[in-house]
Q: What sequence folds into this?
């Protein structure tokens, strides 16, 4: 079996969060919400609800639809709810690390759903453990829970603020006790988070696409550094943290967010088309047609086609029946790993000079395979165009990029990458071109993966890619039990 | 739970078949082959193999990847194999009706994988039962098996010919005993069937896309009325049936076949683009852009855009995480059934006049929902264009169309359909336009669903839509057991 | 994993049957009935019901409680029902061989539940196949179904009689169509079958213990050669077959039947005590106590104790948590296979001379292990006593004994068996002693396994132990799918 | 569905523990060990292993054989291991409450397997939570883990002693870190715990029967108040607690322990026989035979028979196929709940005067049903004899008795109980008779359930029966997910 994630060789988003306050069918709405956010995490899913007195939750490994069904949703009663989808790095792929994370502590029940990454979690965890704390998971988010449990503050919102002032990094999070929801976004605003309303209910979501699905009205983005308290008195907004220069993740535009979402104030598909147009302006080439690599390269390809006046066509068609796993008989077949997912239309490609558009290029391994594949289908010339700049540095704020040594652009000149993926020409979009295309608030983006300027420095460069210490205990996973 | 098939309100293909003779990893190749043919049937899947002495098989309800995994494939040893994917009408959705159908009879083992529909199966079945025959399934294909078992012919190929001379209708089929494979396509050539080679192994497939996946060489289509015998002496082609006017199913081009397949001599994506161009020529309209309904309308939309010079854009984006079932909380949400699968890009659509392209229009119910959905996203004008003629008659040759009364074009004028789906204008492609676009061999197509001229008359108009008689026995299905 | 059947190294009963006619909760009663008959077959279970128009059924591998639950039972509506538990020889252990066997044929639905074995089934099957018949299973019982389907008789009972006149061997069977139940017992009366009533409903059962559980009134045994027709006109008894000397299976008393059942006119526990008393009279020995091997040896041990005046004690206690499979770490432990099930009470056994009672001795392998085990627990002397005569011949009438070469008494003198199982003395009950203990109708028993006098001669001595021909087709079993 | 536990209406043991130090197949041995201890807890099972560096564990709901299979055992590598079976009161029946409980804390990995009950756990938990501790389960045992985590002691054994000096109640427990095993038994010695050796490996077990199964040598009981440290330096015994009067649970003899175990210095079956003899001496009656209620009443019945000279017979036979759940069609049948498990042998009972022996009588409800059942089978007179004194008080030391109000002997005179269960006569064993039968160390037993003298007073009489506070969070259980 080979895992076939959403797209090979792309950075991975860690998580998506969704919350509902004030709707009698909170679990149903949350199910739909995380269904719409599925692209932000495919490894585990979970929903926690409260009826004002008791919390009930279910989490599991797999897609939202693997984890939930109608009967399960019906067993989650309550008017407030938070949901979570998660992708995680290898090594901690078990249900103990699924969210929402739910505990019972001195003051009652507490749940947290977190999108982002805390860069000083390991240090805090070590200190708490020395005092006798026992952690249940290897998630950085659990640190926030312990800090809340130790706080002497009476009100949950005050304890949350106290805890968040200790942690550093990125977070868009939803915390609930039995009858109150606290929503917070870190002062840098790394990850998106927005507020909607469905009749009288408040809806929280990582992206607007989830609001659209449940036909909720988009109210506004939750501001960086904003903290919402939602309870029977309604919604109260506060700004308890020191204001700071914003650092939105530009990769939400390039690859992560769904094209129909509005993120950081603009529609994602239109930004991607603009990136494609900018790319066309920067790196024209004589060719017969523009082909996007499905699905993430299609918006930029359309933009490139419009700007360059080269016709757009489907030279690679995505197979919609590809599941998450696939039996790869490597002994007998070479290209099947790519071919199972992308189907070249030989009659379109044969003898043609194509501009091939992808949104980003990480390791280069998959791109190389696709190129080989297209050549075998008869393509004459391939001019590879990437609608983002070269990725040279790892991310510490909630995205899973490979270690720096595996980022092809970190170690190779463009010409050497061109030779590796074996195309007639290769061009990336420039940082300037990208910022121009993303609109007027260009100074508000985190460009660390491109230029290495990290808005928040991790404590220790060598091990900052993961906050986990060695796991000494291991429960057999469901997968192990079945093998 | 609501089932979300490949596309709502589209005709359904009954089946796809795939076979391998002469490869030591026949089951692995067949797994890949039916994986590539998944679009032809999503209800059940099966593989039967033979090592020359014993046959081994596995079938199950669900997608190929639900039914098979690496361990199961490894338990299917042999150098010859046939595989099948199936969609069936309601009422017989159980594993007894999955194929390949495998029996042991007086002369040994026998398996059949069949794509098509026999219009006189019910009659033959009745006669055989009167003589004491006991049927295991409600599939028309089992009739062929019983006819073979009753034949006095010594050789399997002779018994098959004897049986096929009795049945009427459409069939692309693969029959195997322990050491011989018989491949046959009905004289009308309703369904496609092609021959490939992988080194020395013979490969049989409903469509060429499956040959591409396993990197087999496409040899040729198997001709209407052709019967192949493949055994240790190699491949022998015969034409045992009376030649007859060909009647290829034009819907394979319009909707069924995969865009990267070559069917009836032409690439499907290119034919669809040609249909879109023809549609643009026939029914131009002043608009801001062309939007295809994913995924089947995209090729025609691209053709329409090229011919009309109206820009093509993504106004509806398909959600790739939609599973086969989905919890629809109908009590609280109206459009979620459409919205879970198609995501409108409001920023693209708002205030725009669009040409909306779909490949076909059956009941009109889904189109109506999509239109409503697009209007709510702010679309100003919607000009609906269908890249095929109005469907007015049911199909008896292996496609599941609704009963005539449910075919909207069978009972309504175009203007009344336009009002029902609520668009500014509605145009279908003409039959002539369609035939011109499908190329020079236009006289070889079955147009019965458009014009009612059936190449083979069903015995009895009223019950010919299904060949099944009432089922008196019912085994509890896996689904029932779990509910 | 090692299978731990009901008891190691014992003959195996093939089946138990149970039927209900005229009760609105027929499926529930049948579930209870086959639950009570579980000891007659632990490999598969099934229930078929009819509401007068349609038949519905469910069958599965495993114990009754593995196969059925409340929800499944609730999905089996009808006023008539038949149920079956089965043990089968290796090679055909799959759900296709579970019963009731249900088919749809020219005259409607038909189901059969059969306890017994047809010795000429292979021959008849071959003849039917030559005429084109296709069999679905490798069960001898399917032969009866095909013979019924081919009968020209209008009435089901007449077709059944016609079919049963062709087959030879043992059968206690329940046949149903949509609205009629036919019950038949072979003229030899090999297997038990009885009739009960629960209010107005007729109940059929292999043993009376199932009547007791559902609180039905025992009416009478169904006579050898009797055929009942039960339908809306009530119950009609006929005797369509030639009367013949009865041949009741004496092993039903010795080992198979449940101790609380009344079989062939006597209570089983009391017959077993009588066998134990007879054994004590025949082979007295000086010892400290009588120990029965649980559970089947306990009744006889109690009889031996009463007759011999030696105290009865629990020196071996059965572990009631032993499941059907068990992980045997053979690398590290020797006796665990016995020890997991039988727990010696060392404080009872230490230094004692015991009379160890078992009901029968087949291969001797398990007895040898138990003896070794008892010696390690400190037993001083072991005098093994068997409450039945030496088994020297295989059974062809529905019991699974090993091949003759594996029957220890077939090839060894008693002294050599004694040495093999390593006891101070070994005695069997004599045939005469056994017949005296089983009561006045001693001449009505089949003693073939003891004396080789077969009431119905099998066609061919060499292969008659199984009626199956080689299976050329094999469907992957659920177990294989999970491994 | 109705749960059919080991025996209805009996007190329930909470747990059994088993440990291995110094064997390369520690998990396999532990699997066998908890298999043998299955009678001490049927709700959940678990095993944790350590290879000296990492701990690996698996726990699940159900019987040992439901939770483990060979493949799972093979995935648990290590030379030290602890296992646990658990029965729990309703309300906390979920896998989070299964043991061994395993955590990672500041000093590494830690696991605990506990048999017993801490009467001051709720109080300690409340104090720890106030300081910010977060508990994962509602088990009292987790309190010990938190106390260890907070200890400043460097050595695990010192931290354990510090923790155990704080808790009050009963405990036989096995604690492990990555390379050390600590075994402790509370100073009262409520629950049994013994030490064995298998070659060089140390074996710990609640009962000796588990040593027998793996063929380990019984070394000795672990003394009340003893604490063992087992590591690479071998085994070291200490007695860190204040010596105190022993209070062995006499119910281990009466009902819990397996008859082949040696507990508190004597074989359980022989003690039970002695109790039966004492009972016969105290309450003779004129009758035809002695019948024990299977299985727990059989040993005492045999003793009663020997002493009274009344013959012992099997009038009630246990059905060995009874699973853990059972569909009870209460609408149609009255006695099936008893009848599915106990089968009366009418031919033995009819017209007879019997002495019916049971080991204990708690609520009386089941006894009443069995008596009714026996009468319907024709029994003429029933003289009920109980081989233990009347239970009048709840247990706080690890046994689940009903609340005091449900203990029939707590609220009713014997005559009134006799009338309720409807027997000709009823007698209990006297406390004096019981103590005489249990041997010379009679003063070492806890008799609280009979006389209300609690060796350790619970903090608060009203809620002491459970140490849990209200659970505010609830994860959907596997069972809920499947319903």
A:
């Amino acid at each position: 079996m080979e895992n076939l994630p959403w797209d090979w060789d792309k950075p991975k988003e860690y998580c998506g969060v969704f919350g509902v306050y004030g709707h009698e069918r909170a679990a149903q709405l949350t199910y739909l919400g995380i269904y719409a956010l599925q692209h932000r995490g495919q490894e585990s899913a979970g929903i926690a609800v409260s009826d004002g007195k008791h919390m009930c939750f279910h989490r599991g490994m797999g897609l939202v639809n693997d984890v939930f069904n109608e009967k399960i949703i019906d067993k989650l009663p309550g008017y407030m709810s938070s949901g979570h989808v998660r992708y995680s790095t290898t090594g901690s792929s078990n249900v103990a690390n699924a969210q929402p994370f739910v505990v019972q502590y001195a003051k009652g029940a507490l749940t947290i759903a977190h999108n982002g990454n805390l860069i000083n979690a390991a240090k805090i965890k070590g200190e708490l453990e020395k005092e006798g704390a026992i952690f249940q998971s290897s998630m950085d988010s659990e640190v926030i829970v312990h800090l809340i449990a130790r706080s002497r503050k009476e009100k949950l919102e005050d304890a949350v603020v106290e805890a968040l002032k200790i942690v550093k990094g990125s977070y868009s999070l939803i915390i609930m006790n039995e009858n109150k929801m606290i929503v917070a976004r870190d002062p840098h605003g790394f990850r998106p988070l927005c507020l909607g309303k469905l009749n009288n209910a408040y809806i929280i979501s990582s992206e607007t696409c989830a609001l659209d699905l449940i036909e909720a009205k988009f109210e506004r983005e939750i501001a960086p550094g904003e903290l919402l308290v939602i309870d029977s008195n309604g919604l109260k907004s506060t700004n308890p943290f020191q204001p700071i220069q914003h650092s939105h993740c530009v990769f939400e535009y390039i690859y992560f967010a769904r094209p129909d979402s509005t993120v950081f104030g603009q529609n994602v598909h239109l930004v991607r088309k603009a990136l494609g147009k900018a790319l066309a302006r920067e790196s024209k080439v004589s060719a017969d047609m523009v082909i996007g690599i499905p699905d993430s390269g299609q918006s930029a390809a359309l933009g490139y086609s419009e700007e360059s006046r080269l016709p757009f066509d489907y030279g690679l068609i995505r197979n919609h029946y590809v599941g998450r796993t696939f039996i790869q008989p490597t002994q007998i077949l070479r290209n099947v790993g790519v071919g199972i997912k992308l189907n070249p239309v030989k009659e379109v490609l044969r003898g043609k000079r194509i501009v091939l558009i992808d949104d980003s290029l990480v390791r280069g391994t998959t791109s190389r395979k696709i190129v080989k594949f297209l050549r075998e289908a008869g393509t004459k010339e391939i001019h590879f165009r990437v609608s983002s700049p070269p990725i040279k540095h790892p991310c510490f704020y909630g995205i899973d990029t490979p270690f720096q040594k595996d980022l092809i652009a970190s170690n190779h000149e463009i010409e050497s990458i061109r030779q590796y993926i074996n195309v007639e020409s290769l061009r990336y979009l420039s940082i300037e071109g990208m910022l121009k295309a993303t609109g007027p608030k260009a100074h508000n983006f985190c460009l660390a993966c491109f230029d290495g300027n990290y808005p928040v420095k991790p404590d220790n460069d060598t091990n900052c890619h993961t906050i986990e210490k060695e796991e000494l205990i291991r429960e057999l996973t469901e997968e192990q039990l079945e093998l």
